[in-house]
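Risk mitigation, structural track. In case the binding assays with XIL fail to produce interpretable data, a predicted complex structure has been prepared as a fallback.
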Amino acid sequence: MPSSPERVSRRACLTLAAAAGMAMSAAPALAQSPSLDTFARARGMRFGGAVGAGRPGRVNGSYADPRYWALLASECGVIVPENELKWYALHPAPGVYTFERGDAMQAKAAAGGLEMRGHNLLWHRSQYLPAWVNDHDFGSNPGAAAEKLLVDHIETVCAHYPHIRSWDVVNETVDETTGQMRETVFTRYLGTEVIDIAFHAARRAAPHAQLVYNDYMSWEPADANHRDGVLRLLERLKANKVPVDALGLQSHIQPMGQDVGKLATAQTAEWVRFLDSATGMGLDLLITEFDVADKHLPADIAVRDRAVADYARAYLDLTLSYRQVKQVLSWGLVDKYSWLQAETPRADGLPERPTLYDGDLKAKPLREAVAQALRSAPSR
Ligand code: XIL
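Fallback model:
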């Protein structure tokens, strides 16, 4: 198995995990101590969580829940707005910017001593661009006009949030099935170079920020084309000297059955190959949107929570064995606020349990698995 020099051997890492005591304790109550960020810091990382205002009629947002903010403050060093910095939230009409919600989040984060990450400057999928961008009349010189629109957006948003030190510059431009770049109004006029343009603009507008390509290729077998496509994109960007500093591993992981140990073992070699290739290009890594979909697990809560925790532990042990991973962010901390409740419901209609805390804000076995993985990770 190829191995990057930055990576601690999997065996060493499993031995460490065993020494740290893998047995999970019963779920304790809110305000865990030490916090996940404390464990992360001890290894040279940060831990964080997403917070969002939700979508009317779908998932209620965690943003309005003071207990959720208390949980963020007690567990995290970093927050990331789930939707509030996206183009459709910030720039709803030509020349109109609505920063209020993002600003409110930044103020709450600062009051709680939390840093805020930026997600994202260009979600390069037509369905997530505002309709006015998709339908825009770019006039007689559409290439120049499309470039100006994109660059103006990036400059305006970066200038408004000068304290953001890590930006997802481009999100999800690789099609998961074909591995090719998605086509949008921007590729129509700028070709694949739209990605280069976005990163160069971000570097100029946020010269001190870490610039991230973020996507959801994961370690499951179904993601092979997606992984290959992302590597091809990153190779092209590096060859063109495009300023991309890190790869964001969204880490929406999903066990396809209950035998999670067997699944994890079978997926290890390909994930190592992928991470070796990305780090071999000199990229840093971040876990940007961690959660564990439980759609393919049985209804029984104890069984489900155990399988989710064990699958996550195997994923995190392997991924955190790469010292290039400096941040671990969970896409929400509380099940009832998870985007997955609306996005991918279970066939039996039961609420999903994809995050670290249950609806009463009690820590679940997944919280303990994350804690143990952070404690067992090599220092960086
Ligand atoms: C999701 C949010 O969680 C939802 O509230 C919203 O309706 C859609 O977007 N990949 C990403 C995130 O990069 O921005 C997505 O967030 C989840 C998948």
